[in-house]
């Protein structure tokens, strides 16, 4: 339950901190005093979006903190799924900065508004006048039926199956689209693939062929230069081999006269060996070089093929051509096997469709089983709220469409008077009737959803007298199992609370501020008397107020 709420620099609130208790809490105040501001601040800390208009002082940030006792509500799994530290006493904080940015924290861990909103939905049900209008929507009506039918786990399984169905259907459509496009492009892609597979594609092939082409294309020059090299090496008079041999013999004769001559001789010996090896290799190259016009033509053909393929595919590297070849090969493989994949996905979709229909049928059966009890309970409770002739006609019709809550079309019709035609709630129910119906529905839902806290914002709009007294009794009964707040203008309702807070405005030289404080018993008498008879307190109004409280 909500145990403490602090609001700083929000709308007309400078600074506000209130401690809150279990049971039935009343919030009253004159029209325009700021009750909606208090509700707005609470909504912000539960995940509602905010903007700069939330700040009273545009130079300071707005901070709202709410403390909750959540030990008995089984929320550990939610905290674990969202990687949050679980505390029995959990603190939610919302900050709106002067820049307009917003931050949210759960137990000092930053969270997104989506996570904050999900937790907020599990902690407080804020019933606004706008939500009363939701009573006329089919989704809300079906939610009521599902709560009574205990369909929560079955709806979860249905939605999980529906998600698989939707994703499988998407994959199937993508495969069909791929097949249609692939068939159009298949001949051209096959031609490109055949062309690439015929080419000698491998890493380094281009450099290798270019080198081979240069050698074959310049064979006469290479032979001429190799012959020159051989002559320089082996000429009988001035050949490098002859001169080095003579030098080696000379230094050999000196090597016995000292270590320095020995070292010099060894170095010349090494040079001679290296030159002799180069000479042998040079002669081998010369003997191996020959003109080969056929090979030159083959090499040139391969090079031109690779150059043309690079130009055709708009690439500069052989590795890119190899990648294109692999992609075309993969596409050809997928095209060849797409029929099989489509068949598999169609079978999967058929199986999921059958599963959805079975799950939807179970949901429908459980809903139909609970509808008579719901109808009786609604009519019985509304009779106590001054609507003795209220009657509902609730029917389910199966549809061929998969929806997030099954395959049912709900007809939720109402009449408040005997002999009148049934019609949709939004067309035949007055504002006061809608308020009473919504309160009864909330009371029913509270037994099944087990929310820690519920807040009613003028749920008693459009009613008065004894009916408002009975509505207060219903909220009082609800507060035995949960924390209940109600914002009200009716003294009959206000008198039923265990706790009573008053929202009020004060004017100072700096402007107008909204505040809120808990009333003592004597202050409650005065507040109720003013609600009964206005600001001029009469003895009869005070007596009536005391009577209501007692």
From TrEMBL:
InterPro entries for the chain: DNA_recomb/repair_RecN, P-loop_NTPase, RecF/RecN/SMC_N
Domain of life: Bacteria
Coiled-coil stretches noted in the UniProt entry, renumbered to this chain: 199-229
Gene3D superfamilies recorded: P-loop containing nucleotide triphosphate hydrolases
Domain RecF/RecN/SMC N-terminal: from-to ranges: 2-507
Pfam families in the record: SMC_N
Record's keyword terms, sorted: ATP-binding, Coiled coil, DNA damage, DNA repair, Nucleotide-binding
Classification via NCBIfam families: recN (TIGR00634)
Similarity comment: family membership: Belongs to the RecN family.
Its biological purpose: May be involved in recombinational repair of damaged DNA.
Name of protein: DNA repair protein RecN
Source organism of the structure: Maribacter flavus
